[in-house]
Amino acid sequence: MKVQELETLLKKHGLRRTDIRLQVLGAFRHQDMAYSQQDLQQAVGEIDRVTLYRTLRSFEDKGLIHRAIDGTDQAKYALCQEACTTHEHKDDHAHFHCTNCGRTICIEDIQVPSLDLPSGFQAEEAQIVLRGLCDQCS
Ligand SMILES: [Zn+2]
Ligand SMILES: [Zn+2]
Ligand SMILES: [Zn+2]
User: What is the CATH number of the domain that holds 93?
Assistant: First the structure.
Protein backbone atom coordinates (compact mmCIF):
# COMPACT_ATOMS: atom_id res chain seq x y z
CA MET A 1 0.00 0.00 0.00
CA LYS A 2 1.11 3.54 -0.71
CA VAL A 3 1.73 5.92 2.20
CA GLN A 4 -1.33 7.89 1.15
CA GLU A 5 -3.53 4.79 1.36
CA LEU A 6 -2.10 3.96 4.78
CA GLU A 7 -2.85 7.48 5.99
CA THR A 8 -6.43 7.25 4.74
CA LEU A 9 -6.85 3.92 6.51
CA LEU A 10 -5.58 5.32 9.84
CA LYS A 11 -7.85 8.33 9.55
CA LYS A 12 -10.89 6.22 8.71
CA HIS A 13 -10.36 4.24 11.90
CA GLY A 14 -9.86 7.28 14.08
CA LEU A 15 -6.11 6.94 14.56
CA ARG A 16 -3.77 9.88 14.44
CA ARG A 17 -1.06 9.61 11.82
CA THR A 18 2.33 8.82 13.33
CA ASP A 19 5.46 7.49 11.66
CA ILE A 20 5.34 4.38 13.82
CA ARG A 21 1.75 3.60 12.89
CA LEU A 22 2.52 4.11 9.22
CA GLN A 23 5.50 1.81 9.46
CA VAL A 24 3.65 -0.92 11.33
CA LEU A 25 0.63 -0.75 9.03
CA GLY A 26 2.96 -0.80 6.03
CA ALA A 27 4.49 -4.04 7.33
CA PHE A 28 1.24 -5.82 6.42
CA ARG A 29 2.31 -6.25 2.84
CA HIS A 30 -0.41 -8.58 1.63
CA GLN A 31 -4.08 -8.19 2.38
CA ASP A 32 -4.78 -11.85 3.07
CA MET A 33 -1.60 -12.84 4.87
CA ALA A 34 -1.35 -13.13 8.65
CA TYR A 35 1.85 -11.99 10.32
CA SER A 36 3.29 -12.86 13.70
CA GLN A 37 4.71 -10.13 15.91
CA GLN A 38 8.12 -11.55 15.04
CA ASP A 39 7.47 -11.19 11.29
CA LEU A 40 6.35 -7.61 11.81
CA GLN A 41 9.32 -6.85 14.05
CA GLN A 42 11.65 -7.90 11.26
CA ALA A 43 9.82 -5.68 8.79
CA VAL A 44 9.80 -2.57 10.97
CA GLY A 45 13.32 -2.88 12.35
CA GLU A 46 14.09 -0.24 14.95
CA ILE A 47 10.69 -0.01 16.67
CA ASP A 48 10.93 -1.58 20.11
CA ARG A 49 8.82 -4.60 21.05
CA VAL A 50 6.55 -2.83 23.52
CA THR A 51 5.73 -0.04 21.09
CA LEU A 52 5.05 -2.57 18.37
CA TYR A 53 2.78 -4.55 20.69
CA ARG A 54 0.85 -1.44 21.74
CA THR A 55 0.49 -0.32 18.14
CA LEU A 56 -0.91 -3.72 17.19
CA ARG A 57 -3.34 -3.57 20.10
CA SER A 58 -4.63 -0.17 19.03
CA PHE A 59 -5.01 -1.39 15.44
CA GLU A 60 -6.97 -4.37 16.71
CA ASP A 61 -9.18 -2.17 18.91
CA LYS A 62 -9.92 0.16 16.01
CA GLY A 63 -10.87 -2.53 13.53
CA LEU A 64 -7.80 -2.33 11.33
CA ILE A 65 -6.37 -5.76 12.00
CA HIS A 66 -7.70 -8.99 13.49
CA ARG A 67 -6.17 -11.98 15.15
CA ALA A 68 -5.85 -14.94 12.84
CA ILE A 69 -6.22 -18.06 14.94
CA ASP A 70 -4.31 -20.79 13.15
CA GLY A 71 -3.77 -23.54 15.67
CA THR A 72 -0.17 -22.57 16.39
CA ASP A 73 0.87 -20.99 19.67
CA GLN A 74 1.91 -17.77 17.94
CA ALA A 75 -0.50 -14.85 17.76
CA LYS A 76 -0.88 -13.70 14.17
CA TYR A 77 -2.53 -10.62 12.77
CA ALA A 78 -4.02 -9.82 9.39
CA LEU A 79 -5.55 -6.73 7.84
CA CYS A 80 -9.32 -6.46 8.14
CA GLN A 81 -11.74 -6.02 5.32
CA GLU A 82 -13.57 -2.73 4.83
CA ALA A 83 -16.52 -3.91 6.91
CA CYS A 84 -14.64 -3.81 10.21
CA THR A 85 -14.99 -0.70 12.33
CA THR A 86 -13.98 0.40 15.80
CA HIS A 87 -15.14 -2.24 18.31
CA GLU A 88 -16.87 -4.24 15.65
CA HIS A 89 -14.96 -6.87 13.79
CA LYS A 90 -16.60 -8.91 11.08
CA ASP A 91 -13.84 -11.34 10.35
CA ASP A 92 -15.94 -14.47 10.29
CA HIS A 93 -13.79 -16.24 7.76
CA ALA A 94 -11.57 -19.28 7.81
CA HIS A 95 -7.82 -19.18 8.31
CA PHE A 96 -5.54 -21.59 6.55
CA HIS A 97 -2.22 -22.59 8.05
CA CYS A 98 0.29 -24.21 5.73
CA THR A 99 2.19 -26.91 7.55
CA ASN A 100 4.99 -26.77 5.00
CA CYS A 101 5.90 -23.08 4.64
CA GLY A 102 4.23 -21.89 7.84
CA ARG A 103 2.17 -19.16 6.16
CA THR A 104 -1.26 -18.34 7.55
CA ILE A 105 -3.76 -16.95 5.08
CA CYS A 106 -7.26 -15.44 5.44
CA ILE A 107 -9.76 -17.33 3.31
CA GLU A 108 -12.49 -14.73 2.89
CA ASP A 109 -14.58 -17.02 0.70
CA ILE A 110 -15.16 -19.46 3.54
CA GLN A 111 -17.39 -17.96 6.21
CA VAL A 112 -18.09 -19.43 9.60
CA PRO A 113 -21.64 -20.85 9.33
CA SER A 114 -24.21 -20.09 11.99
CA LEU A 115 -24.53 -23.19 14.12
CA ASP A 116 -27.50 -24.48 16.04
CA LEU A 117 -26.27 -24.66 19.60
CA PRO A 118 -28.07 -26.61 22.33
CA SER A 119 -30.38 -24.31 24.26
CA GLY A 120 -28.65 -22.29 26.94
CA PHE A 121 -25.42 -21.90 24.97
CA GLN A 122 -24.41 -18.58 23.49
CA ALA A 123 -21.32 -18.46 21.32
CA GLU A 124 -19.45 -15.19 21.22
CA GLU A 125 -17.01 -16.32 18.60
CA ALA A 126 -16.25 -19.23 16.36
CA GLN A 127 -13.17 -20.04 14.35
CA ILE A 128 -12.51 -22.18 11.34
CA VAL A 129 -8.89 -23.28 11.18
CA LEU A 130 -7.71 -25.27 8.19
CA ARG A 131 -4.31 -26.88 8.09
CA GLY A 132 -2.55 -28.44 5.17
CA LEU A 133 -0.63 -27.33 2.10
CA CYS A 134 -1.10 -23.86 0.59
CA ASP A 135 -1.30 -23.11 -3.12
CA GLN A 136 2.44 -22.56 -3.30
CA CYS A 137 3.32 -25.82 -1.55
CA SER A 138 0.77 -28.30 -2.89
ZN1 LIG B 1 -11.73 -7.01 11.67
ZN1 LIG C 1 2.83 -23.26 1.97
ZN1 LIG D 1 -8.38 -13.29 8.65
Answer: 1.10.10.10
